[in-house]
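Changelog-adjacent note: as of this version, every example in the card shows the full chain rather than a window. The one below runs 162 residues end to end.
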Amino acid sequence: MSVYSVEEFMRFFSTTIAERTQVGQRQGITQENYVGYVYRSHPRLSVVVMTDKEYPEMVAIELATKISREFEQQYSEAQIMGATSAIKFPALDDYIVKYQEPHQANTILKVQRELDETKAVLHKTIEGVLERGEKLDSLVDRSNDLSTQSKMFYKTAKKTNS
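Full-length structure tokens:
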């Protein structure tokens, strides 16, 4: 598939799912290796986020919602309703860069990743403590054996010297 045909596919797919989504509705539609997440907040405003299948749905929907809200804050109802062509939205470039790494963009996923990393460290620490505990138990046993042997040696030595 050439770059032009991918762009053409995405434009057609985005337009189609945006037109078929009711105002106030959010949804994700899968087509081949792509998922289009759409949020239609206004009769003349739909935000479509195109991702691969591995991109987290929660993050894509969050992105579509944020873009829609910020767009509606920046442009009035009259500007949106009266638009005869695409309205430029400079913040979009920033969102695209920020959301390349979903675990950094989404606070919940970021916290989840940090929790997973902390959990792994704790498991290693607990395993180390358990291993040291086993070693300590072994040392205590050997110490007890040594103590018993020294008592026996003392008794034997006492008998021999008497």
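Structural remarks: The radius of gyration is 33 Å.
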